[in-house]
Automatic annotation (TrEMBL):
InterPro entries: BTB/POZ_dom, SKP1/BTB/POZ_sf. Residues 20-87 form the BTB domain. This is BTB domain-containing protein. PROSITE patterns: BTB (PS50097). It comes from the Eukaryota.
Length: 195
């Protein structure tokens, strides 16, 4: 009888901070070594999670013996890019030529909002989104990609880019917008702009 269980991906360890004292365990067997000090400085959510009121905060940790924190609901690739940015490093796929990148940027924005560290990545995120806007004539985007970028701009509180991408959605595309509900949930966007 054949094994019906899907093969687990090979373990992928990424040293974002070589002297990091925590390892973030993510889906798809991804593990990120990061600095609790950096994460606590830029994210009130991580600060609380690593503080004295949570189990993770009470465990002894050091660069020699990092503790593992499981984040099973977070997107592993997006978390890798978020942690790279928070540690002052650039990612390995921040390129306007990568056509999957609009969805990655959207996932990055969702995590930055979840961990309340939008402000910490606002400049590099604005630069990444701006690159797509600047290169849109030479590297056209699909309607779904433009919607991902508009949603990312909204999550990252980048009003002028949100305006540019939504204006493009209205003026440059002639397809039905009904398929965009999953990519661009209007309830979330209107809540973000109300605050």
């Amino acid at each position: 009888m054949a094994d019906t269980k899907a093969e687990e991906p090979e373990r992928c360890d990424v040293d974002i901070a070589a002297d990091g004292d925590i390892i973030l365990a993510l889906p798809e067997n991804r593990y990120l070594r990061v600095s609790s000090t950096v994460l606590s400085l830029v994210s009130p959510v991580f600060k609380a999670m690593l503080g004295p009121h949570f189990r993770e905060g009470n465990q002894p940790r050091s660069s020699d013996q990092p503790i593992e924190i499981s984040l099973p609901e977070d997107d592993g690739i997006a978390m890798k890019h978020l942690c790279l940015l928070l540690h002052g490093r650039t990612g390995d796929s921040y390129s306007h030529g990568n056509r999957t990148f609009p969805t990655q940027l959207h996932a990055l924005a969702v995590l930055a909002d979840k961990y309340d560290c939008v402000e910490a990545i606002s400049l590099p995120a604005e630069a990444m989104l701006s690159r797509f806007w600047i290169h849109r004539t030479t590297t056209p985007l699909s309607m779904e990609q433009t919607a991902c970028l508009a949603t990312a701009a909204a999550s990252l509180r980048l009003g002028s880019l949100f305006h540019a991408f939504t204006k493009s959605l209205v003026l440059d595309y002639y397809e039905s917008y009904t398929g965009l509900k999953t990519v661009m949930p209007l309830d979330n966007i209107s809540k973000e702009h109300a605050s």
